[in-house]
Amino acid sequence: MPARSKPATSKSRPQAAKRRSQAGKPSPASSTSLVIVESPTKARTIARYLPKDFTVKASVGHVRDLPNSATEVPAKYKKQGWGRLGVNVEQDFEPLYVVPKDKRKLVKEIKDAVKGAGRIYFATDEDREGESISWHLLQLLRPAVPYQRLVFHEITKTAIQKALEAPRDINDHLVSAQETRRIVDRLFGYQISPLLWKKMAPRLSAGRVQSVAVRFMVERERERQKFTEARYWGMKARFSKDGTEFGGDLVEVGGRRIATGKDFDPDTGKLRQPQRKIRALPLLLDGDRAGEVLAHVQSSPARVASVVHKPFKSSPQAPYVTSTLQQDGNRQLRLPARQTMRLAQRLYESGFITYMRTDSTVLSDEARLAAADLVRDHFGEEYLAKGVRHYRNTVKNAQEAHEAIRPAGRHFRPVAEVRKRLGPSEARLYEMIWRRTLASQMKDAKGTNSTVLLDVAEARFRATGKTIQFAGYMRAYTVEQRLLPAMDEGDALAVLSAETSARRTRPPRRYTEASLIQKLEQKGIGRPSTWASIVDLVQHRSYAFKRDRTLVPTFTAMAVVGLLEKHFKRLTEYAFTARLENQLDAIARGELGRLEYLKGFYFGNGYRGLQALLEAGDKMIDPRDVCGLPIGDGDDGAPIEVRIGKWGPFLRWGDRRCGLPEELAPDELDTERARDLLEADARAKLPMGQDPATGRNVYLKQGRFGPYVQLGENDQEGGPKRSSLLKGMASEEVNLDLALKLLSLPRTLGPDPDSGTDVVAMNGRYGPFVRCAKEIRSIPAGTSVFEITLREAVHLLRQEKPKRGARQAAPPIKTLGPHPETQAEVRVLSGRYGPYVTDGKLNASIPKGSEPAAVTMEEAVSLLKRRAERVAANRKRPKRPKKKRSRRKARS
After folding, report:
1. pTM
2. Residue 779 and residue 395: Cα distance in Å, rounded?
């Protein structure tokens, strides 16, 4: 495949212009139109809205790209110094595009389809990536018939018809911007990564945006490493007014404000000096002083010192853009950013939402009318905003589609339809988009924030509450209110209870996927189409792992960022990376030349470019320096450090070395923990004893995935036998007898009575289990893997296998006893959609505002009875006959 230069060169323009001039004259040989999209799902959806003489083909993403491996480089370029790189930096950064092996058959099929077409429409996505796919298809197909570009931000009949009425040419500026980004990313990653392999460790990678994202996480971890914990005491109390209970927090003692977490310096753990000299240091409560205050509070009456009501007005948030959709998908639905985008892609390609890669918060007139209709139907005219709500775009961007993410079409389809056609996961994301779109066109919410100060002896408490006078857009969501009883200054209150608690300051929170994407967006780094892949990539490059929902940077990430900051500082600065995005936007708008930017980036322009930095780095970077992360000094004064080695990070103190646990966070490793790990490793080299049966030594060792026991030496023939500790078992409780029991696993219990196959009890990654052939069942808590009998194991294996992903049932909130009529046990349970009562056959939701734990048997029976009546009524209702719809299959 010949190397290509700019997306549209001066040589190619006349021929392209000639073809475009024929756009209105279909070829007399064929009246068939060929539409090319990038996704098979999109092809099937769009085919439903096209005339019969249209054929739809899918390119399945990109059909050409820079070579990913040496095997993809054509033979005549293999001897070129730039062949593997795929970019000829000496010849105006000409890219080498190749068709991957797995795409060659597909490209041939598309070429065959072109032969029978009288017109071609490139209908890939409406962004730079989609524009680039269309351009690459054009370069490969070289059609002799008219061709045009179709763009639409939703896959509906109306949108497709409008696109057919107003096709356009391929936008060379968008293609040029995408190609520039691809080349910059290739130069950055393919030239800095080998330097990391050479100076630090193999299989490491660097990336223009990826490295900046890792730097965000590393800087937060450094803050956590410097953090010094501070301890203080606080107090909560429960009060009652006319039978209504509410809580309050201690804020003052003896007229002096008590210290809270924000009053402590995170680096020193000491109280900060007040900014103004007239202010005194807050009172730091210790346990003894808190106990004295508690005794006075428990024995004294309470009075209302002041009541302040402040009205508030809350406006709805803008409709979703890519970043906010990914953030809420992570926060509300607990979905990784990549999965959120995968679900959104399916919703878009199935015609349920508009294009999901966008920076725009604008809604079309069609969308506002559709939202207004639904607001009137669901909530009433009084909730609909007067006029048009406009939301400010924070990003100047020529790359993305020009409408927010919202339900597609003039009439938003119900969530139930999405659930039926695509599934529950897509339905949950669609519902989130549906509610946000409606809320964006509703009135502001209005209410009152109340703050009450209460005096009890020398202590002052503060209670807060919120009252909603007009819910406005909040009607689109579930809104909880913290209500306070009516109170006036001087009112007497009852103190129901009070308790003190020892508290400590917390280090800065690590990033989650949502907050990392939010940070990238705030800094103007990356674009909607890249954020999900960047967050996903850092977790698969040994740079981060997940703990709960937070992203924890690894020691390798700390070392790599240190190297980049020292030797490639300019390229990893936030301002530089954000400025690059703006320059790509300028190229997309035709305001900046592709070659002008690439030359400055690589060769420099008043500053050192990438080429000079690489040459200097190769000479100056010392592996002994960049591969070490100092922890502190040992008792002998020798430094303790983490070293990045060929097989991963390890701990070194003088001549002593040991591996590190796989999921040890950098902020959890100090000199004390380092000494413990080194001592544990030294003990692991000494045997616990010997196995009486074999005479071999038994060891307790620490591995990447936790402690384990080992029988024999590492160098013995066939290798030593190893066994992990059982879940919840601490290494301190392991003695020789327990180690031998662990090494006895797996245990053969005997033959299965039916099949004759051996039944085996063993320990696995997810805990102990029994196996017979392909049947596996977990051993329940309370039953020992060392003592389970053949009869017990066979009984487990005969039980129905739990469904994959099935969650363990939560314990009941309350067991009410036998139903007075059916004698079935009635329980109060917590479900996905809230608390409910059940008799085992029928479920009935508990009304909002009711306390689940306070439900009585009489109330439960009444709820179940009403639920049974509704179910019976629905069964009697005649079903409407379904209308038959003819669906034309996508012709591909």
Report:
1. 0.76
2. 55
Paired strand residues for 459: 253, 456
Integer Cα distance of 117 and 282 in angstroms: 80
Which residues are designated catalytic? Answer: 355
Q: Where do we find the tokens 């190893």?
A: 722
Dihedrals phi, psi of 643, to nearest 5 degrees: -110, 140
Percent with pLDDT over 90 in the chain? 58
Query: Three-state SS across 193-227?
Result: HHHHHHHCCCCCCCCCCHHHHHHHHHHHHHHHHHC
Q: For the residues 458-474, what does the mean pLDDT come to?
A: 94
Distance between CA 746 and CA 764 in Å, rounded? 10
Q: H/E element holding 760?
A: strand 758-764
Indicate the average pLDDT of the chain.
87
- pLDDT at position 829 is 86
Q: Residue 141's pLDDT is what?
A: 93
Instruction: Using alpha carbons, list the distances in angstroms from residue 233 to 266, 271, 498.
Output: 17, 14, 13
Alpha-helical (H) ranges within 200-336 are 210-226, 287-298, 322-331
Round to whole Å and give the CA distance between 850 and 27. 71
Tokens of 396: 């100047």
Q: Where are the beta strands (DSSP E) in 410-472?
A: 445-456, 459-470
436 touches 463 (CB < 8 A): no
Non-local (6+) Cβ contacts of 580 within 8 A are 184, 208, 601
> How far is residue 844's CA from residue 889's CA, in Å, rounded to a whole number?
43
Secondary structure of residue 722 in the 3-state scheme: strand
Q: Which residue has the tokens 């210290």?
A: 259
- Structural tokens at position 354: 């508009």
d(CA 68, CA 54): 35
- Find residue 495's DSSP bridge partners: 239
Band of the pLDDT at 147, cuts 50, 70, 90?
very high
Which pLDDT value is given to residue 395?
55
Report how far Cα 364 is from the mean position of its chain's Cα atoms: 29
Closest CA to 208 of 176, 180, 184, 174: 184
Instruction: Provide the 8-state DSSP code for 882.
Output: P
Edge to edge, the sheet with strand 33-37 lists 54-58, 33-37, 119-122, 147-149
Q: Is the dihedral of CA 793, 796, 798, 803 positive or negative?
A: negative
Q: How confident is the model at residue 1 (pLDDT cuts 50, 70, 90)?
A: very low
How far apart (Å, rounded) are the C-alpha atoms in residues 675 and 635?
10
128 membership: H or E segment, kind and range: helix 128-141
Please tell me the least confidently modeled range out of 191-205, 329-343, 867-881. Answer: 867-881
Task: Please write the tens of the pLDDT for every residue from 369-400.
Answer: 999 999 999 999 999 998 878 887 655 443 44
Please report which confidence band the pLDDT of residue 847 belongs to, taking 50, 70 and 90 as the band edges.
Answer: confident
CA distances from 626 to 197, 205, 821 (A): 12, 15, 76
The pLDDT of residue 535: 86
- Distance in angstroms (rounded) separating the CA atoms of residues 108 and 345: 26
Statement: residue 23 has pLDDT above 80: no
SS3 108: helix
Residue 717: C-alpha distances to residues 690, 714, 746, 750 (Å) = 18, 9, 21, 29
Task: Tell me the per-residue pLDDT of 394-429, one tens digit each, with 9 for 90 and over.
Answer: 554 434 446 899 999 999 999 999 999 999 999 999
E strands, 8-165, in order: 33-37, 54-58, 87-88, 94-95, 119-122, 147-149
Separation CA 778–CA 764 (nearest Å): 10
Neighbours of 65 (CB within 10 A): 20
Mean pLDDT for the stretch of residues 563-589: 89
Q: What's the CA dihedral at 71, 76, 78, 81 to 10 degrees?
A: -150
514 within 8 A of 330, measured Cβ to Cβ: yes
- Tell me: the pLDDT tens digits for 214-236? 999 999 999 999 999 999 999 99
